[in-house]
Amino acid sequence: MKILVCISHVPDTTSKINFTDGDSKFDTNGVQFVINPNDEFGLTRAMWFKEKQGASVDVVNVGGPETEPTLRKALAIGADTAIRVNTPAVDGYQVAKELAKVVKDGGYDLVIAGRESIDYNGAMVPGMLAELVDANFVTNCISLEVDGTSAKAIREIDGGKETVSTSLPLVIGGQKGLVEESDLRIPNMRGIMMARKKPLNVVEATSAETETSSVKFEKPALKGAVTLVDADNLDELVNLLHNEAKVI
Known about the structure:
Layout: E1 2-6, E2 9-11, E3 18-20, E4 25-27, E5 33-35, H1 37-53, E6 56-63, H2 68-77, E7 81-86, H3 92-106, E8 110-114, H4 125-133, E9 136-147, E10 150-157, E11 160-167, E12 170-174, H5 189-195, E13 200-204, H6 234-243
Parallel strand pairs: 1-6, 1-8, 6-7, 7-13, 8-12, 9-12
Antiparallel strand pairs: 2-5, 3-4, 9-10, 10-11
Helix pairs in contact: 2-5, 3-4
């Protein structure tokens, strides 16, 4: 089984976010980038298939040279080969088109992507990718088993979980629950050294057209002042909620 894991290069959630050029561009100065958490769950599941079923695991990213440390980390975790599509990731459609070419050229049986990236939260790339490569698709996936060309997945739905049976080729949108957080892997020194010798192939983009562009970024409004009310002063609390907060 050939597995391709899609890796998004995203800012660490502890980073302070700023914008430049009239708030039209994201300022990357001083920002620490990491593997998108949903993708990391998927990569860890792929490692299980590699170790238990002998699958081969490649990772792919759409982005410039600045994303290569993130791909190297994925190699250090255990992926066999990394692929970088040499073009900035501008919008979901463009990324899906670039990934589709990699999937078709590589003949992958299973593509594991994160349900969404934590920077733009678009949640659109896995579904569009499945359509472009004519593969089955399961999103919000929290469990995946593969037996030959058959697969069984569990996904979160409103108010519960749904178990589905499908077949390869398959694209999934994985999330927390696909593996336990305790199973996530931190690269050790041996993995880091081996990653330096593993291939990281750069392929040129197909020049896929973009459908959207960022016009302006805006930070959330600052939180207002907090008024503390004694627990035994319910009359004052009701008055503030009614006259100031206007929620009752």
